[in-house]
């Protein structure tokens, strides 16, 4: 494959220059850095069929603990934005763990994912009849082949976007010095700096909230109010949310059971009445 010295940035369309190459899935892959928005991207990712042989990579041992932590963060953010009744749409929701956890906590949450089966939140798939208040996209941004197209899709679902991705330092780490490159699984193809996220906020007319490391929001300006000043600390303190969330929300575990049971009964064939 021909290696080019420059590539078009997948965020802002500026010319990105070669940064370094790395051994990714037994392939020598070049990474490019944008001088305008700071986004770092791989060359065109031709290896994704192999990388996504499984929708969830086998080394993702933190999937359950991460979903528990993300549940707490979503609850904290909804409370901080005064959006306790808002519908939450989990973009690229995987097996549905987060949606089920949120519904068990009382949040009206829905699942959407083009590439994975919904295993545990069945019956609560997103449709375009649902207008969300917040879209979540945890550990999604670094996977996006066409980031701006996906982000616009997310904003088409809800005007506020809560997401996670690890911030790349201003001085790009070498391939062997930063675990987030994900060289062993090949699914991470784009990396964001703080100024990349600020560029996106300006592009879409949003306000950027960030803890400076992993968790970020692109919000409608009139949704932020006082919460922007405490976003960092709300992420840090979200671990305590389970101590009092049941006083704020009523779990949907049983009501969801009743709803799905009624729907199931309604589609069963009528039983023959004995003569």
Automatic annotation (TrEMBL):
UniProt-listed Pfam families: Methyltransf_23
UniProt keyword list: Methyltransferase, Transferase
Biological source species: Chlorobium phaeovibrioides
Gene3D superfamilies on file: Vaccinia Virus protein VP39
GO molecular function: methyltransferase activity
Name assigned to this protein: Class I SAM-dependent methyltransferase
An annotated GO BP: methylation
Keyword Transferase recorded: yes
